[in-house]
């Protein structure tokens, strides 16, 4: 790493700090500050509008599409200052972080003008329609079809694990538009309205009562012919762009949520005496070490991006980081439960906040009532799956960094000899 923040970035840091101090609630930066549920609700209702008025939502996007056109380093400083203040920045993960940047890179001018302002203003909510019951890690084997009928695509098929589908206005969806092409070559990336006949959403209720995931069924649903992003049958290339955004972590802020959890674990272990257990201390030390490795890898990635250096090992850092933090976080949440022992099963035990904001959404809906800590433990089980499984990330590192041969494809038992 050889990185010094330029003067203009540090000047911008001062501007952001001033805006946060002027717009966050009184007492926000004081030790022990807490808001009641009513105050939190009121804050959430006005905060998105304040962010939009300040120009901080998607601020790195070009000015012609409503952004501030921030430089790379200004965008980094923006993320750092919001993280330092523990102020929410993201309005819509699927819109701001996944489909919006994908449209910026691959979309037509008409698509950019239609969809990007709505994403920034928060008037349209999105979900991701990739996985299918028999097409998860082998995503290119998907079977959902889109057939052109006049100037509209007619879509039939099923998606699964579709987060927030019950609230979404649009789905960025993968469908097979050429059934005769090789499986990677016949897929298109479509922007499909969700609120129409032929779209059925069925929530998948989790043990704690939450239902963030859904099955989505498409039966002759439709979207305009022009809602193909990146060109017909080019969906696989566009999808890899979206998955790259999903796997990524903000270079110098991604580690902070894990460090906050580590601090909470140390405080809890100190309070209840678990810190005297040498195995607990060792596991806490391992977790802290891995968090620091993620921080350093983020700085390596930022340094390479800022300097324009091309390096296969840097290019694969996204896969390495995703694999590392997701596996690390599963182990960390097991550690959190072990610090409290059997008492971890109680709904009022553990830190009052977790890294997954849906922690208490399932309460009162007949689910197994759990604490935010246990809800975060449940969610961590999925982190090694979404955005590409750990096995996929290992393949990426093996092929792109270590130069290992590609994993051999399975051969059918009835295939001719030598095939």
What features would you describe in this structure?
- There is one protein chain.
- The chain has 419 residues and is of the alpha+beta class.
- It has three domains: 7-91, Orthogonal Bundle (Butyryl-Coa Dehydrogenase, subunit A, domain 1); 124-233, Butyryl-CoA Dehydrogenase, subunit A, domain 2 (Beta Barrel); 248-400, Butyryl-CoA Dehydrogenase, subunit A, domain 3, CATH 1.20.140.
- The chain is 44% helix and 12% strand.
- It has twelve helices and seven strands.
- The chain has helices at 7-23, 37-54, 72-85, 93-106, 109-121, 235-247, 256-272, 278-307, 312-315, 317-340, 372-380, 390-400; strands at 126-129, 145-149, 152-159, 170-176, 187-193, 199-204, 213-224.
- The protein has a four-stranded antiparallel sheet with strand order 2-3-7-6, with no helix packed on it.
- Helix 4 crosses helix 6 (235-247) and helix 10 (317-340) runs antiparallel to helix 12.
- The N and C termini lie far apart (48 Å).
- 33% of the residues are buried.
- Residues 356-364 have low confidence and may be disordered.
How many helices? The count is 12
N-to-C span: 48 Å
**Helix and strand sequence:** HHHHHEEEEEEEHHHHHHH
CATH architecture of the largest domain: Up-down Bundle
Radius of gyration (CA) equals: 23 Å
- At the third CATH level, what is the topology name of the largest domain? Butyryl-CoA Dehydrogenase, subunit A, domain 3
Overall mean pLDDT: 85
Order of strands across the biggest sheet?
2-3-7-6
Count the domains. Answer: 3
Largest sheet data:
4 strands, antiparallel
């Amino acid at each position: 790493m050889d990185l010094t923040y330029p003067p203009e970035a540090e000047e911008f840091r001062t501007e952001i700090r001033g805006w946060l101090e002027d717009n966050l609630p009184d007492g926000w930066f004081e030790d022990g500050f807490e808001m009641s549920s009513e105050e939190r609700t009121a804050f959430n209702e006005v905060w998105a509008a304040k962010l939009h008025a300040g120009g901080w939502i998607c601020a790195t996007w070009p000015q012609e599409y409503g952004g501030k056109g921030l430089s790379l380093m200004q965008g980094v400083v923006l993320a750092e200052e919001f993280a330092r203040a523990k102020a929410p920045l993201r309005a819509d993960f699927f819109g701001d972080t996944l489909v919006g940047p994908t449209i910026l890179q691959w979309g037509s001018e008409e698509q950019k003008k239609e969809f990007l302002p709505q994403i920034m203003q928060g008037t349209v909510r999105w979900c991701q329609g990739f996985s299918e019951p028999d097409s998860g890690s082998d995503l290119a084997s998907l079977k959902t079809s889109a057939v052109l009928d006049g100037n509209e695509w007619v879509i039939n098929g099923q998606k699964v694990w579709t987060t927030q589908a019950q609230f979404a206005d649009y789905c960025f969806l993968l469908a097979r538009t050429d059934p005769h092409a090789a499986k990677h070559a016949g897929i298109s990336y479509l922007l499909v309205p969700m609120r129409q006949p032929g779209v059925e959403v069925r929530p998948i209720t989790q043990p704690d009562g939450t239902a963030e995931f859904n099955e989505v069924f498409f039966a002759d649903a439709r979207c305009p012919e022009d809602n193909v992003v990146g060109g017909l049958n080019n969906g696989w290339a566009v999808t890899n762009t979206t998955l790259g955004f999903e796997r990524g972590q903000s270079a110098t802020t991604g580690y902070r949520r894990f460090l906050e959890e580590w601090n909470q674990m140390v405080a809890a272990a100190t309070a209840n005496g678990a810190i005297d257990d040498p195995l607990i201390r060792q596991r806490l030390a391992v977790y802290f070490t891995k968090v620091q490795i993620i921080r350093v890898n983020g700085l390596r990635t930022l340094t390479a991006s800022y300097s324009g250096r091309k390096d296969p090992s840097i290019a694969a850092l996204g896969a390495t980081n995703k694999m590392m933090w997701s596996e690390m976080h599963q182990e960390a949440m097991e550690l959190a439960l072990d610090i409290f022992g059997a008492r971890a099963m109680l709904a009022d035990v553990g830190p009052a906040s977790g890294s997954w904001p849906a922690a208490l959404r399932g309460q009162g809906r007949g689910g197994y009532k759990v604490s935010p800590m246990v809800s975060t433990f449940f969610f961590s089980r999925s982190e090694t799956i979404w955005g590409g499984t750990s096995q996929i990330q290992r393949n990426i590192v093996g092929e792109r960094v270590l130069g290992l041969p590609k994993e051999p494809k399975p051969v059918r038992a009835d295939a001719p000899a030598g095939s």
